[in-house]
Design goal:
single chain, 418 residues, alpha+beta, Immunoglobulin-like, five-stranded antiparallel beta sheet, four-stranded antiparallel beta sheet, 20 strands, 16% helix, 28% strand, elongated, binds 2-acetamido-2-deoxy-beta-D-glucopyranose, metal ion binding, Purple_acid_Pase-like_N, EC 3.1.3.2, Calcineurin-like_PHP, secreted
């Protein structure tokens, strides 16, 4: 309060609080009520998929011997952002309960779980074990392909006397895939999200450059407008550099944490078990010697792991200036850019980011304040990557300042955003 004077004419403010405080408050009073699926489905955009980890993983009865699942990814590996088409074929009886999960890493164990019911009980889960112990990044029903259930893509697998006696069906789905460093596989399930069983797995797909420096975002470290912190994620632990201004550079400090760190802390499930995903290495460096209300460019990385694009950014005005143009919002979250579902989706977040990007392009924004409830990863760590990728077109260009909300009570410890 009082450190900025804000002109009435250029004041842009969005407040998008959706009352999540009230619901989390009641959660500490009534965890089982809070965790009930109906409650979540009705009052938030938490999908049915959210409770997948509570399902017993059974065997599929009579799987088709012709099943195949393949992708169109190129032999050189996955890029940093692309759409992967997943092709399922050889299905004898297409069912509305058939679905495909994107799993990462590919060697994660889907068949059995920690024999520790206490961890699950912490989440209000009293199902019998084993459950799905590694939570998929996302998933989609095969029926999203309108030709799947109607078997438009029919193939003949067996002929007798020139007549087809066995024919199968298939379909394909498109997944938006971003570089999350660890390799991925697509797994065909049946039984829906309620009684899942595994039918077939694709070959593992690797990212071309799992070490790539990505998802850079900037934040002010004081109110002078002369220094900006850049934070990014990479698969590589050696320090990298930010290069900015006219030939200036700074070396990054690097940090990370392991699943063991999570286990030895007091954090509850799922961050330390079925929600775990390797966070890579978090690099951060401060660009100093800048001028307030000015444009500069920067890139981050190293010759060995590669560089980000050259990014234009703007410093905010110095404290005490007559005018500060900022956007403030809370509760944004993230959403998939394909037809799949994730454990927790905020569909409006994509249009919010697009609107913010438009404001930045028009030069209307000096700073962004995301005042709590940031990614809604809530212990599913890979969703921080999805969120950082979603905000990077804006967070890499003006200072993106965050405050913690009730959904970051644990998550902020996992991946500080600035
Ligand atoms: C949830 O929504 C459904 C469908 O709108 C409704 O039938 C049901 O009563 C709601 N349940 C709760 C607990 O609000
Ligand atoms: C795979 O298919 C998708 C369409 O679903 C397309 O956008 C993408 O470019 C294809 N990838 C390759 C490597 O051909
Ligand atoms: C899917 O795979 C089948 C069998 O391998 C093939 O015949 C079909 O053309 C593929 N469909 C697509 C959309 O790639």
């Amino acid at each position: 309060m009082g450190s900025y004077r804000v002109s009435n004419y250029s004041f842009v403010l969005f407040i998008l609080f959706l009352g999540s405080f009230a619901s989390s408050f009641s959660s500490s009073l009534h965890p089982l009520v809070f965790n009930s699926k109906v409650e979540h489905l009705n009052h938030t955009a938490i999908s049915e998929f959210r409770v997948l980890n509570r399902r017993f993983l059974g065997d599929c009865p009579n799987p088709s011997p012709y099943l195949k699942i393949s992708t169109n990814s190129s032999a050189s590996g996955l890029g940093d952002e692309e759409y992967v088409s997943v092709n399922v074929s050889g299905v004898l009886r297409p069912s509305k309960d058939d679905w495909v999960a994107m799993i990462s890493p590919s060697h994660s164990d889907m068949s059995s779980c920690l024999a520790n019911g206490i961890l699950y009980a912490q989440t209000g889960d009293f199902e019998k074990l084993p459950l799905l112990c590694h939570y998929p990044v996302k998933a989609a029903y095969m029926s999203n392909d309108p030709d799947y259930l109607s078997c438009k893509k029919k193939e003949c697998k067996k002929y007798q006397n020139g007549r087809c006696v066995v024919s199968t069906c298939g379909g394909s789905l498109s997944f938006h895939v971003i570089n999350i460093r660890t390799d991925i596989e697509f797994v065909l399930f049946s039984g829906g999200f309620v009684a899942p069983c595994i039918l077939k797995k694709s070959n593992p797909l690797k990212f071309t450059n799992p070490n790539k420096p990505l998802y850079g975002h900037i934040s002010s470290i004081d109110s002078t407008g002369t220094s900006m912190r850049v934070t990014w994620v990479s698969g590589h632990k050696e320090p990298q550099q930010v290069q900015y201004g006219n030939g200036k550079k700074q070396t990054s400090g690097v940090t990370t944490f392991s699943q063991h760190d999570m286990k030895s802390s007091a954090l509850p499930s799922p961050a330390k078990d079925f929600g775990w995903h390797d966070p890579g290495f978090i690099h951060t460096a401060v660009m100093r010697g800048l001028k307030p209300s000015s444009s500069f460019s920067y890139r981050y990385g190293s010759d060995s792991v590669g560089w980000s694009d050259q990014i234009q950014f703007r410093t905010p005005p110095a404290g005490g200036s007559d005018e500060l143009k900022f956007l403030a919002f809370g509760d944004m979250g993230k959403a998939p850019r394909d037809s799949s579902t994730m454990h927790y989706i905020q569909p409006g977040s994509l249009s919010v980011i697009q609107a913010v990007a438009n404001e930045i392009n028009s030069g209307n924004v000096d700073s962004i304040f995301h005042i709590g409830d940031i990614s809604y990863a809530t212990g599913f760590l890979v969703e921080w990557d999805l969120f950082l990728q979603q905000i990077s077109p804006v967070a890499s260009r003006v200072s993106y300042m965050t405050a913690i909300g009730n959904h970051e009570r644990y998550a902020l410890l996992l991946l500080p955003i600035h």
